[in-house]
Structures are given as C-alpha cells and as structure tokens.
Amino acid sequence: MHATTFAPWEDPEAKPLIRFQNVTKRFGTFTAIDNLSLDIYEREFFALLGPSGCGKTTMMRMLGGFENPTEGRIELSGQDISGVPPNKRAVNMMFQSYALFPHLSVWDNIAFGLRRDRMPKIDLENRVAEMLKLTRLEKFAKRKPHQISGGQRQRVALARSLAKAPKLLLLDEPLGALDKKLRQDTQFELMDIQEKTGTTFVIVTHDQEEAMTVASRVAVMDEGRLMQVATPDRIYETPDSVYVADFIGDVNIIEGTATPDGQDTYRIDWAEGQEPIRATSAHPFATGDRCYLAIRPEKVTISADRPEAAINAVKGKVLDIAYLGNISTYHVELPSGTVIKAQTANTRRISRRSFTWEDSVWLSWTVTGGVLLAE
Amino acid sequence: MTAETATFAVPRRRAVRRAGATRMLPGHAAMILLSLICVFPVYWMIVSSLRPANRIFEGTLWPTAPSLENYAQALQSIPMGAMLWNTVVVSASVTVIQLLTGVLAAYAFARFRFRLDWVVFGLVALTWLVPLQVVMIPNYLLVARLGLLDTVTALVLPHFAHALAIMLLTQSIRAFPKEVLEAARMDGAGHWRVLWGIIVPNLRGMIASLAILIFISTWNEYFWPLLLTRTAENSVVQIGIQMFITQEGTQWGPLMAASTMASLPILIFYVVLQRQVIQSFMKSGLR
What we know:
With 375 residues, chain A is of the alpha+beta class. Chain A is 22% helix and 33% strand. Chain B: Residues 84-273 form the ABC transmembrane type-1 domain.
C-alpha cells in the first residue's frame, strides 16, 4: 500500500498558511530581504537555510511580529499580518537562547502564556501536564531553568512555545546550543512532536544536515533572496545553481563550455589536454555557452583501470584521503591541476583498502550523474 | 605510569600548592591590614561608648571598667526612639520611592524610543551633578509653602527620584536579554507584566545593591534634616547625635553610644540585603 505523500505545494488548489508576497525589508540602506515571495503550507516542517546575514532571521522576526516589511505583504491564513503585534498572532517562537524565564519553574514557564490568556485553572493544569508529557519533562516540573541540563532547557522552551497551540511555530536555531549527539537525537524528537501536534514549523538554521533531516521543504537563501525552495532530496540531487550545489553537501564543480550532442545531452570542453565530458540537462545550452557540471563525490567511481563502458573517465593521482569511518573521500589530482573528489563506502576493513596516496587511479561517472548548471 | 613516578607525583603537587600560597601571602596580609583600618573606627566607637565619662580618653583596646551609663544618658538626653523611628521611616520611604520611580523611568528609557530620548536621559543624568546647596533654597521655599516644615514628609518629598537609580537601572534593563522580553511579549505579556513579572524579579541583585546605597545615604543625611526640622521629636538620628556637641564641649561617651545605636539598624539592613545580592549573582546566567 502506498502511503499518501505530503506535498501540498504541488497542489495548485492548496491554500498556503503563510504567504510572503514581494516582501522587502530594509534597515536604513541595507536590504535584508529583497522582493521575496514564498508560500508555506499547513503542517509543513519548513527550513530556512543559509549563511549568517542571508536574511533568514529577519524573515522569522517578520513572521513573529517583531519586524514589519518595508514593502510587500505577509499573510497568515489569508489575513495580512503586517502591524499585528506578536501576541495577537497565532504564532509562537522558540528562541535560540531558549529565553526561559530564569526566576520561574519549568511548570510556570510553560504556564506563562496560558495565564496571560486567562485560561481556566483546570484547563491550564491539564494543558501544562500535556506539554510536560509531550516533552518528557514531568520529573522536572518544579525545577528552575538553572537546575536542568541544556537539552532539558531546550525541551522546556519547546513546551512553552507549543502550550498555546499556535498555528505556526518559529524555531530560531533551536538546536544550536546542543552537542552533536544530542542534536541528532533531538532532531527526531522535534519531527515526532511536529507530527503529533500537527503544528506548522518554520525552522531557521545554518546547519544543512539539520535542515535536510527535519524539513519537508528547504529554502536556501543568500543575500536576502531565495535561491531555491524544494524538498531536501531535490535540493541535493538537482540544485538549480552553483551556489545551492556548493552550499548543500560536498560537490565537484567542473567549469567548461557546452556543445549540444544529442537530445538533452551536451559535450563539455573543460580543460586543455582533457577528454571532453558528457552530461544531460533539461536546461537548454547553445554551442559555446558557459556551463558548470556539479557532481557529488559519491557519484564518482574510483578504480585502478579505466572502466570499459564509462563515457566520462579521467585519470589522476591520489592526493589526499579523508577517512571518515563509514566512508572515505579521495582527493584526486588530474594532470591539469584540477582536484576531483570521489567517495566510496568502506565496506572492507581499512587494511584492505584498494588505493593509497600517490596511486594512479581512474575516476568515472555516468552522463546523468551530475547536474549541468548555467550559473 | 610507573610506581616510582606515582610516588613522586603527590609531594610535587603539594609543593606547587605551597608555592602558590606563599605567593598570595602579601596580598592577603594587605587585605587583612586594610580590613582592620576600616573596622577599627567602628570598634573604637563601640568601645568608647562603654567607657565611663572619666575614662573616655583612656588608650586601652578594651575599657578597664565597662558600663552602659553612656547609653542611659544618651536615651535621657534626646528622644532616641522617636529619632530612630523617623530615620527608619524616612530612609525606608526614600528607598522604596526612589526604586519605584527608578524602575519605571529606567524601563521607559531602556525600552521606548521617543524623540530626543537621549537628551532627556542626559538631562536626568546631569541632575546628579547638581549639589544639594544649589537646590536647597528653592526646595526649602516649596516645602515651607506647602506647610510641611518640621515634618517627616518634608524630609522624604525632595528625594522622590534620583538620577543614580535611574541610570543604573536603565543600564541593567538595557543589558537584559532581549529574547526573554520578546518571549514574554509573544506569550501575551504587556509592558506592565514584562516589567514587574520578568525584569524586576531578575534584577533583584541590582535592586538590592541600589536599596543598600539609597538607604545608607538617606540614613546619613544631615544637612537637609537640619534645615527643615525644628523639634527633636520630628528630627532624625543624625541631628540627635550632633546635639551632644555643644558650646560647653563634646559629650563623647553619650555621642558614641548614640552613634552605636544609630549604626545598628543600618548594619542589620545591610546584612539582610547583602545575602540577596550574593544569591542573585549566583543565580545569574540565563542559559
């Protein structure tokens, strides 16, 4: 039986929960967000990914009501929310520093917003208990924030932000303060909680692994603009610019000139003395157009001899080996000086590794292995 | 590690510790000396208050014939109880009112942006530099016109706000983590709730330090009460102490006894609030 795929963004009838319409935000002469349009749907776990200063936090703060757009319009459930104060929006936020109230217990931190809403005592107690259970904090209810660990504080912040059952929860680098192991565990917890509550989550992160793990869709940003919005697999497999290909994961970028060579296939002349390589692309290139082949290291096969059927094969010398336990990345230098990375899974013990430094090797990949990009 | 190195490891560490302690010795000695210099006048005041009148100038560290007669004389000569009570009322009122106005003004300066806010803040800060002697006459006239001469109210009235409290609290609120305030705002807390429910409980240390400063400086106030009060019953303890310095000479014994009695409440106040200051320092740090 096929599970129903959650992809409201592919349904032209689907109404977005959040709509950015040509939003621009300027701080003096600095443009933080540049004419940005974006739809985010209900129950999505949406990630805003980009380097520091790319505008992702500004977008989040505009959603939270702490900033207003200079131009354009932001809608929540079809209503323009520009100028609506933070507490009047069905939005809550989990801050990077958790922003817990240091003088209040875990229980009181979670109950804070409910008390402001004047929720009846019995309902309030039930809701706090529900949140404590959801975040597995029952045992710590009476403790103050300084009496619990970083991971527990992170869960208190999550419980507090979910207590008022917001339509939209904003998470600003929520796992940034946790160590790697705890961060990985918490990513799955976050996904579980998001599924259980059905709340739309928008997460801001600069950690691509985190974005790829938790999000249903990822928006890659740069200098206030959206570079690409797609599912994690599409972002990784079919980036639509060199920037996105380079920002997400490890990639080899081979620059050259394209010449059409059959249907959707192009010959790429890329370095003097090197055989041309071939790649497919749905994007049309004319003869002599500048192009960039982005190919992931794991799509490049390394072998001692030239594979017979290989269309793209180059010879080089092993310059460096990065051993990561489960995989090894080989940095292979070609006669032209270009270095290409190839990755292999370490299915055999290290003592039986086929290649070592200075070995002469062949690198090969298929015509569809890489993505041919215009910019 | 071999057994030999293990045997030598412990004495070596002890030697290092001893060397460290030796290095710190001059510092500790200097601090002990400074503490003694600070504490000695207080000790001498208490000891002198216990010396009988005929032995008031004896140079021994402890009175040869200790007695409480100076205390009895001090209590008979001036209405010590009423004066202490007035001083407590004035100091406590001024402390509470200055903290209240300070917190409110500081929140406005720290959190609201309005036209020429920095000019207003600068003017408030400048009032700190204006000495009492400059505002003494206008304040006196105002109090006199209000018919408040020789009243405790008049001692409190000109001290409703102080630039020091406003400036220190403004800096503390400005340094308060913005995200905590935004989280409170997002959870539906207005300015009033944010101030009293979030900021003030977390600035306990700062407020306690300020309370100590304001209370002590008000307690020690001499000139303004001297100008305003006419009767001993409506006066404060600093004026009472001065009453032992007369044209016929100074009554050192009762003066020291009255000074000791005047110092006790303030010492208790300091000890109580000092614990608050230390506790709040220990609990600081939001993450």
